[in-house]
Amino acid sequence: MFNRIRRLRQVAAIASISSLVAGCGVLSSDSTEEEGPIVVGTTAAPSTLDPAASWDSSWELFRNIYQTLLSYPPGSTTPEPDAAENCRFTDNSNMKYQCELREGLTFSDGHTLDAKAVKHSVDRIRKINVKTGPAGLLGSLERVQVLNDREVVFHLNKADATFPFVLATPAMSIVDPEEYPEDKLREGGSIVGSGPYTLSSYDDGNQAELVKNDSYKGIAERKHSAVTIRYYQDSPTMVAALRDKKLDVAFRGLAADDIVDIQADDDDDLQMIEGSGTEINYLVFNPKDPMAGKSAVRKAIAQVVDRPAIAHKVYKDTVEPLYSMVPKGLTGHTTGFFDDYGEPSTSKARKILAEADISTPVPLTLWYTSDRYGSATKAEFEELKKQLDASGLFEITLKSRPWKTYVEGYQNGEYAVFGRGWFPDFPDADNFIAPFVGEQNALGTPYLAPRITDDLLPNSRAQSDRANVVKDFEDAQRILVDDARLLPLWQGRQYVAASSEVSGAERALDPSTIMMVGELSRKTSW
Asked: What share of the chain is helix, strand, coil (3-state, %, to 5)?
């Protein structure tokens, strides 16, 4: 049987040999172009091609085609200049951030990329103000000032040490003012960017073909000149394509069964790369719903839900239970939901409902997306229904929709309770709290929490040293636990399945777990 430790030892041995002979050119990870494009499979198809509309995994595509002022070199959690030559706060209060662009930048259509294009790109996000779009990331921005062709200044309305991280998100992709209107979204199935690759063709929901952008100036590696990204509805179909050699890499949406099967497989043609992750999965309660809007109902659900059972039964321990919105590994993580609720208890939940004079069973409909987070999502919600129904306190109905219509539904407040996943915009606890609170947030469900938005987040953002913000984030999470408007369920790890002939997958994921496809290559020898 396949032994994962053995495979890792084999990889380590190969790496050791490579280091000895690299100087002689005996082994190389450079790809030969005759072999065609690297083909990557994922279940996360873009919902839009316009950065002003996206605060979701459309960023996977954006990161590789558009360019941002700052980005992440492999292995780094600190953003560094990409389209910019340098960036810095120019004051001591973290309220004025200035960037100087590289010389000679152009878009893929040949138009000049200058400071005016940067201002246009950021300003249109706020002007168009798409519901659940990325405008919420710019809450601390007062205005954008163009000093000259290459210099731009971001004036903030409050101290914000996280602003460089915001500029490094694909939401802040720089777009061509001649192609992207200032007051409406761009239509069509093409992209004009300045990133490491250009989009040569796009079949919505099915496939994107990328080719190397020869005019790119930035820090991204391009170890292969062409990459094809194929979008799948479920993990089994995607993994079958990988086994049939129709894919080189499978990422995002791998089901637990498929991960375990590949790890246990005796097929030396495949490898499974595993890494720590900060992806989280959680439930959202609509405060306007007659039942989900009741604090006691939400707390009773929090008291019944068995996270370890979900992690083990549904995800085969490829995820771990999560008891706060801030995942383990980040400054400010707590275990607030476990501290308050402990082990699942029907008797405690019954008492919560009885004290609020709520009759049981409580009828609720739980919604999930059928094609966004992988095929295990359905099984996860079936397990939630089983747990809640078994308590005798709830009567659960399950419903689902494809992602695009699912988003419209929660934006319109149609769901009492719905599931969401979150892949971080940047590696800071701020990004697991700020996007979910306030009048405008990533959920389309206003969550007024003035103590968080007016005090705790501003206090934390004034601190350049993020080790000094622990108390602020602990206090913010205390509020989230008390309100129980958001119910964290699990924290994921990162898995990439790939042909054994592919290298670079372990370096391809940035801190927000977005894949930089240029890091991928085919191994060649002699």
From this structure: 35, 25, 45
In this structure, is residue 192 part of a structural domain? no
Shared domain check, 479 and 404: yes
pTM: 0.78
Residues 396-429: tens digit of each pLDDT: 999 999 988 998 899 889 999 999 999 888 888 9
Q: Give the C-alpha distances (Å, rounded to integers) separating 105 from 108, 174, 374, 472, 496.
A: 10, 11, 38, 40, 33
Phi, psi at 15, each rounded to 5°: -60, -40
Residue 398's domain comprises 280-492
CATH number (domain holding residue 361): 3.10.105.10
CA–CA distance, 46 with 127 (Å, rounded to integer): 22
Q: Residues 76, 132: one domain?
A: yes
- Strands of the sheet with 226-231, listed across from one edge: 197-203, 207-212, 226-231, 38-42, 249-251, 494-499, 270-275
Three-state SS letters, 222-250? CCCCEEEEEECCCHHHHHHHHHCCCCCEE
Same domain, 507 and 485: no
Question: Strand, coil or helix: what is 276?
Answer: coil
Closest CA to 259 of 314, 329, 327, 309: 314
Q: Which of 50, 34, 153 is nearest to 95 (CA)?
A: 153
CATH of the domain at 12: 3.40.190.10
Look up tokens 């419209």; give the residue. Answer: 408
Is 349 inside any structural domain?
Answer: yes
pLDDT in tens, 40-63: 999 889 989 999 998 888 999 999
Cα 7 from Cα 436, distance rounded (Å): 40
